């Protein structure tokens, strides 16, 4: 009946959680975008960005963790889902309520899943797989004593089948647990050194075939520092039963010496160094007892704000490298300057912005592969860098996905149908369109970065005319809400740099700083904040409506785009907020829908200059009407309501406003649009019938 429909473009941001994304397999990134999962294929040479989304969670996703070909997600309701690929689709193979509070940390290692929640508990779960899916058996519940877990890292110990588990909580210590094969998880020790909460943990990858049997734990904290902890097998010192030399230092004396050193450095938070060596034993792979030592190895200093994530370069070739992200708007790659335990580490590459608007910095980062990294920021957009040569540390920034980080409230096509403008409660207006020979869609500009939530947008007049008169750039003055054209600012001595037209899609940092459009006019008249607007097909009229709790404010105001002056009297009749305004294509009619469960029709007065009069109304919907739309020939119009129906009405003069059909849905209808499709009649290849197809959305704002 219909031709094939495919997805061309998905604009989606990543949630503000350090564990909101993870790499799966070779180059596929799974990212949390509110309640949905997005998939970004980083191997796509055309740069499509997010290629698909998956529903499944009922609340915002807080954690995404991958292991092999499986990934696990957790949300604010305490639910956990396991996702597996079946054919070419990802499915939720198992889901359960792990905690009563939000999931704040999660880790998966082989069949073990560890979940941490703001209920101050850590739980273990064991996964078994079969042809029907995954099954989960609950293990232990560990009380964290009123501390919230912020991150969990798990690894196997070198030379043993036992697992080592590191847990970062809302405290200054790292709790270390051990689990022998088939045994319960037991607490082993606590690592001290950080001067604030530890937010990120990561064990270095190691191969059982490696000549180096050591394991390194990286921890990043709100004290701006990264600490490395070395874990390696050791030979226990024999304990003599004979009297010892009183001059030999004991553990108590060493502890007292460390405390005295720390007292000397109290004025330098985060730099207190504890050289204490922790020793513990577990069963080896052959059942023998293996002793390990765990000690502080290195302090990495370079970030100027909280460290939000740390991750090791995948693979075991070459020198180990650690990637860190921070609120200071930088990503850093760290590498040992020399080899061996106690090596000095330094930053070999720094990415991001120096100074300027940091806007929350980087929330998290990950390795795409050994030669590529990516990180997402406070506003949900990604930035990606690729190393161009294996011989030199030459990195270049390349395109990465961006999107609104708040609910999208307005969406409109340009008059020529080439671009889309969107507005959001994230206080930005964005332009999206195709770029390059491949015609892949990207975010092209952020014309407006406002101080208030934005609810709607529309193009006014022919885009070509507006574009020809558009200034080169715009800037937002300090403490101001109106963008000013840069080619109109008067400055005699100031050196002003103006951006040149790019040959590629702009990066997220450029979108936030150099793609503003200048503001030319403001419209006034409403008593409360605007809720919706519409522009007539010719671009000559602008209709607006505001939030309202009474009939006095539940009106539509009209302005002429030629001089921005009001036209006629406000169109009244509704008693509550008008949710949508729609012009008919011939501009003879204005349709409005309202929170008062009614729609109203207004017709242009003959001989007037854009004045309208009421001609009909209906209040048969049982709940708020969220949207309304005209067919392309204006013979019918549709309304979408929270009462789970889309209703079709006549727009013809003969039976104007007559109910023609009702489409019943399983969920509330929040948006509706009508278009044409052609259908060939059987036996008559040349005959076609035009019909109107309603398209509805079922997700409540």
From TrEMBL:
Its main location: cytoplasm. The keyword Iron does not apply. This is Elongator complex protein 2. The lineage of its organism: Eukaryota, Fungi, Dikarya, Basidiomycota, Agaricomycotina. It comes from Rhizoctonia solani. GO terms for biological process: tRNA wobble uridine modification. Belongs to the WD repeat ELP2 family. Gene3D superfamilies: YVTN repeat-like/Quinoprotein amine dehydrogenase (2.130.10.10). WD repeats lie at residues 191-229, 300-335, 401-431, 571-602, 618-650. It is found in: Cytoplasm; Nucleus. Residues 479-505 are annotated as: Disordered.
């Amino acid at each position: 009946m219909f031709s094939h429909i495919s997805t061309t473009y998905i604009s989606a941001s990543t949630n503000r959680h350090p564990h909101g994304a993870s790499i799966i397999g070779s180059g596929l990134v799974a990212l949390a975008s509110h309640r949905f999962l997005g998939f970004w294929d980083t191997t796509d040479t055309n740069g499509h960005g997010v290629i698909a989304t998956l529903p499944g969670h009922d609340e915002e996703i807080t954690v995404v963790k991958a292991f092999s070909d499986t990934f696990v997600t957790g949300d604010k309701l305490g639910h956990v889902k396991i996702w597996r690929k079946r054919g070419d689709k990802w499915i939720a193979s198992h889901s359960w309520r792990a905690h009563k509070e939000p999931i704040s940390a999660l880790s998966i290692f082989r069949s073990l899943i560890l979940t941490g929640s703001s209920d101050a508990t850590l739980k273990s779960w064991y996964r078994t797989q079969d042809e029907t899916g995954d099954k989960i058996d609950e293990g232990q519940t560990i009380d964290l004593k009123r501390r919230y877990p912020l991150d969990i890292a798990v690894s196997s110990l070198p030379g043993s089948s036992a697992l080592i588990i590191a847990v970062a909580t809302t405290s200054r210590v790292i709790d270390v647990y051990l689990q022998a094969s088939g045994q319960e998880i037991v607490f082993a020790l606590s690592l001290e050194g950080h001067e604030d909460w530890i937010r990120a943990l990561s064990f270095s990858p190691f191969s059982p075939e490696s000549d180096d049997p050591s394991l390194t734990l990286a921890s990043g904290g709100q004290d701006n520092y990264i600490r490395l902890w070395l874990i390696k097998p050791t030979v226990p010192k024999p304990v003599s039963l004979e009297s010892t030399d009183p001059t030999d230092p004991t553990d108590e004396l060493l502890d007292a010496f460390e405390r005295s050193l720390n007292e000397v450095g109290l004025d330098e938070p985060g730099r207190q160094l504890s050289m204490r060596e922790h020793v513990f034993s577990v069963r080896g792979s052959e059942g023998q007892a293996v002793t390990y030592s765990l000690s502080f190895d290195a302090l990495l200093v370079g970030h100027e704000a909280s460290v939000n994530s740390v991750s090791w370069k995948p693979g075991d070739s070459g020198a180990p490298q650690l990637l860190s992200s921070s609120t200071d708007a930088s990503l850093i790659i760290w590498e040992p300057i020399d080899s061996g335990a106690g090596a000095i580490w330094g930053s070999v590459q720094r990415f991001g912005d120096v100074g300027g608007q940091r806007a929350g910095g980087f929330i998290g980062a990950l390795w795409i592969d050994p030669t590529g990294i990516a990180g997402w920021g406070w506003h949900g957009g990604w930035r990606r860098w690729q190393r161009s040569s294996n011989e030199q540390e030459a990195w270049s920034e390349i395109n990465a996905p961006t999107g609104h980080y708040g609910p999208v409230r307005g969406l409109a096509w340009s008059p020529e149908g080439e671009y889309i403008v969107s507005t959001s409660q994230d206080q930005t207006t964005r332009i999206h369109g195709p770029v390059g020979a491949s015609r892949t869609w990207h975010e092209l500009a952020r014309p407006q970065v406002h101080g208030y939530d934005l609810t709607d947008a529309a193009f006014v007049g022919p885009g070509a005319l507006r574009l020809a008169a558009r200034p080169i750039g715009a800037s937002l003055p300090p403490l101001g809400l109106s963008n000013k054209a840069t080619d109109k600012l008067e400055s005699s001595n100031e050196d002003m740099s103006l951006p040149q037209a790019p040959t590629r899609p702009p990066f997220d940092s450029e979108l936030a700083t150099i793609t503003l459009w200048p503001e030319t006019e403001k419209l006034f008249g409403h008593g409360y904040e605007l809720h919706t607007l519409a522009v007539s097909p010719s671009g000559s009229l602008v209709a607006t409506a505001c939030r309202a709790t009474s009939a006095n404010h539940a009106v539509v105001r009209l302005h002429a785009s030629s001089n921005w002056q009001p036209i006629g009297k406000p169109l009244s009749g509704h008693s509550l907020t008008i949710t949508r305004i729609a012009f008919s294509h011939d501009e003879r009619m204005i349709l409005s829908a309202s929170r008062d469960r009614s729609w109203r029709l207004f017709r242009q007065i003959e001989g007037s200059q854009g004045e309208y009069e009421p001609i009909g109304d209906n209040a048969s919907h049982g709940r708020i009407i969220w949207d309304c739309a005209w067919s392309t020939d204006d013979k019918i119009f549709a309304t979408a309501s929270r009462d789970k129906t889309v209703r079709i009405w006549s727009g013809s003069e003969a039976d104007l406003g007559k109910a023609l059909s009702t489409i019943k849905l399983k969920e509330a209808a929040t948006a509706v649009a009508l278009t044409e499709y052609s259908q060939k009649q059987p036996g008559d290849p040349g005959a076609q019938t035009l019909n109107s197809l309603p398209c509805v959305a079922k997700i409540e704002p």
